[in-house]
Amino acid sequence: MPSTPPSYSTISVAEAERLVSQDAVRLLDVRTSGEYQGLGHIPGAHLLPVDLIAVAPATIPREGKPLLVYCEHGIRSAQAARMLAMAGFPQVLNMAGGMSCWRGERNHTPGDPCGPFGPAAWLVGNADLLPPGGSVLDVACGRGRHALLMASAGYDVRAIDRDDVKVATLRQDAASLSLRLDAETVDLEGSVDLGQETYDVILVFHYLHRPLFGALARALRRGGLLLYETFTTAQAATGHPKNPAYLLEPGELPRLVAPLDVERQREGHFEGRWIASVAARRGRSS
After folding, report:
1. Which residue ranges form the domains of the chain, and what is each CATH number?
2. Are strands 67-70 and 46-47 parallel, antiparallel or unpaired?
């Protein structure tokens, strides 16, 4: 017999209000950040816009209270709830009618779509630099939030990490969502060959191994884009990591990505961390 497809439940606003009053659910708002603040959100709700929902399997815990998903009218939330159920979230509830029917308390504080459940702000903020399609390499991918997001946008994605468990989980998540994604266990601090002019985009977030930069540059196609972001030495005073081998010196990152052309960069305290970020492109004639 064919297996029963994953499903979610749709509940009324009145039922949602009852569950919220009893603190019986976790709340996920899948509207835009403008709607979240301007129209008001249910107090305690996390913001993850529906166009970023593919990162959820890598960022939102599956265990715990049921996950109540809502939008403004119940349409986007149904789409998000369906994806969450496909990804293996066991108890997903969609609020019919959305916030247009909500009569309970509202909060108008701002929300960050790149918060704890979202992708990196550096990736989202530089989406205009991405090609409309092509191949993507996600280096030190971890649970694969960026790999899943890029695959959901139609890119051919290869994700690599040294953690067997995380790679296996990413493979399972991608398969459950029918995403085109190849996840592979790779020791990035060994002898690594990432290919020659293979990828249109390479992503590296929260990882630093200085000998890898040459391989990253060679792996980019001409005109290809590297988005790189990780911690600086200032981070050691406020949190992890503390090992200087994993921390960038001031002004170091633009030098490490040479001979790529740096199109955008930043360094300082952003999103609660001390980081340096670059968007660097391989020249079309190099």
Report:
1. 9-100 (3.40.250.10), 121-281 (3.40.50.150)
2. unpaired
- In the chain the first and final C-alpha atoms are separated, in Å, by 56
* pLDDT tens-digit readout, 98-118: 999 999 999 999 999 999 999
SS (H, E, C) the chain: CCCCCCCCEEECHHHHHHHHHCCCCEEEECCCHHHHHHCCECCCCEECCHHHHHHHHHHCCCCCCCEEEECCCCCHHHHHHHHHHHCCCCCEEEECCHHHCCCCCCECCCCCCCCCCCCCHHHHHCHHHCCCCCEEEEECCCCCHHHHHHHHCCCEEEEEECCHHHHHHHHHHHHHCCCCEEEEECCCCCCCCCCCCCEEEEEEECCCCHHHHHHHHHHEEEEEEEEEEEEEHHHHHCCCCCCHHHCECCCHHHHHHCCCEEEEEEEEEECCEEEEEEEEECCCCC
Decide the pairing of beta strands 273-281 and 220-231.
Answer: antiparallel
Residue range 160-204, pLDDT digits in tens? 999 999 999 999 999 999 999 999 999 999 888 999 999 999 999
Other C-beta atoms closer than 10 Å to the C-beta of 221 total 19
